[in-house]
Amino acid sequence: MTHAVVTGDSLTGALDRLVDRVRGAEFAVVLSPDGLPLGSSRQVEAKLAEQLSGVVAGLLALGSAATRTCDAGGLRQIVVQMSRAFLFVATIGNGTILTVRIAGDEVEVGDMAYEVALFVGQAERHLPVSLEPASSAMSGDAGAHRRLG
To answer: Which of 24, 32, 39, 114 could be cross-linked to 102 through a Cys-Cys bond (beta carbons 3.0 to 4.6 Å apart)?
Structure first.
C-alpha cells in the first residue's frame, strides 16, 4: 500500500522528509496561489518565507511569460542555478507552489528534481487548497480557500 506524501495535517513533516532525502537540501516551503506561506520545513523563519514569497512571485511571472511566448503549455518548474545553490520552484496542480533550496559542494540536483516531481505529483491530491472558479473570482471572492472534510 502506498501512503500519501502530503496530507493537510502533516505538511511540515512531509517537507522535512523531502529535505532529509536529498543531500544538500536546506529547506522547503509551500506557498498558496496568492503567495502566502502554507507550510515549511524546519529551519525556515517567517522572514525567509516572506522573502521567498516575493522572489517566487517574480519567478512565476517570468516563467508564465515564457510559456506564453514559447507556446509550450503550462509552467511546471523553474530551476535557478546560483554559484553556490539551486532554487527549485514547482507548481502544484491545485495552484500551490513548492520551493526548495539545495546548496553545497556535493548537491544532488537530479535527485532533487526527482523528489520535487514526486512531491508535486502526490501533493496535488492531498494539499488542502483549491482555487475558486473564475465566476467567483469575478464577483470579488477570489483567492485560496481551505477545503472542509
So the answer is: 24
CA angle 128, 19, 112 (to 5 degrees): 95
Banded model confidence at residue 104, pLDDT cuts 50, 70, 90: confident
Q: How far apart are CA 56 and CA 68, in angstroms?
A: 18
Residues whose CB is less than 8 angstroms from the CB of residue 69 and which lie 6 or more positions away in sequence, other chains included = none
Strand partners, 79: 88
Neighbouring C-alpha atoms within 13 Å toward the C-beta of 36: 7
What would the DSSP string read from start to end of the chain?
Answer: -PPPS--GGGHHHHHHHHHHHSTTEEEEEEE-TTS-EEEE-TT--HHHHHHHHHHHHHHHHHHHHHHHHHT--S--EEEEE-SSEEEEEEE-TTS-EEEEEEESTT--HHHHHHHHHHHHHHHTTTSSEEEPPHHHHHTT--SEEEPP-
CA atoms within 13 A on the CB side of 60: 21
pLDDT, one tens digit per residue, over 72-82 is 888 999 999 99
